[in-house]
Description:
CATH topology of the domain at 77-339 and 400-416: Rossmann fold
Oligomer: single chain
Mean pLDDT: 80
Amino acid sequence: MSEISDLEQALLIAAADADSRAYEPVKTSESAEYGLEKETTESEINLEPQPKVKPKKRSLEPNDTSESLSKIRKGYADVVASHYNSLEEKGIIERSKSRIVYLRNFHNWIKSMLINEYLAKVKENKKQHNAPVRVHDMCCGKGGDLLKWRKGGITHLICSDIASISLEQCKARYYHMKGRSARERGGGNIYSIEYICADCTRARLREKYSDPSMKIDLVSCQFAFHYSFESLPQAECMLRNAAECLQPGGYFIGTITDAYDLIARARRSESDTYGNNIYKVSLDFDIDKPPLFGAKCHFQLEDVVDCPEFLVHFPTLVKLAKKFGLKLVKTEKFKDYFERMKNEGKQLLTIMRALESYPPNEGHSSLGEESDDYKHAEEFLKEKGNGQDKVGTMSKSEWEASSIYTTFVFEKVKNTWSADGTPIYDI
Length: 427
């Protein structure tokens, strides 16, 4: 059986079994697994319509209670919300003391460059001078990107997140920023904002917009989209929320963990648990036969993340995205994105302190704790041999944690909708 038909078959099996989380893990053939030798390209994904399959319903068990059934329907939503609600809001001074301060700053730089890159494209496509630019920050958390949107000159922002306390902190951060802007010389007005507290993988967000007919130019989902791959219905709900109000020519951008990389590391280490003193990953599935949905992993990153996530099978994401009129533009590993954008973003790298100075300045010490954390920097300076005595870098431990992430960009193509709500598009 071909790779394409195997992927179609696996999706149909997943759809048939997906009654929220009450379904068995998807069993796929070898060709539909997370292949590491060959990447599936966009042209390999079949878009032919498939026959509808009636979902199997989960039978009630003798020990089922209303509480247990509610938990099945919610999946890991409460766990994720509780984790992010419990994270303490720390000031700049406290964050600067973190062992992973440069890793966090580097990730912030990646987000800044990605947001700036596609906001610029959105504005280029606007026919009207100073036309309004509306953005949806999906899974916005505490509002870490609010300043990026201000610098991007947007008109209106929708902030949605599952964690209510995080959203309250986002509101406080916005009002602080707005007040500071009013006091600054030439600060002027900043964008308007609205907030939605909801599970983006289960609720239709458009119904919660202040104006459900609103057209959006850019949707951003940073370090969060992978939570939707708990099940097929959740992934489809998340993509619908991203695409439904997005203007044709608008973009859906984001960052996720790279499933291929995570599984490859597990196979190399011959263990489903691995990491270093910065991060730790535990894969809770058969790494030789990973499911398309529900491939749970527990990811720990010092001070930032410590909760269950799900791996995203990228060819499946591309196929599902097309259902909602989203065409893949590009995906790049963080290291590749850095190589492409480092010259353009050189000044911002310095401003954001996204790289650590090595050797450290007088009176400071390096944050890396392993003996070989800066071996690469030492070798670089030795090979340079032209009097250069310092370099901007990250410790080896931080780079290993950062390199498991990848960016993605989808473009909303022009489409119409049939009477039954099915998108009709030409890609």
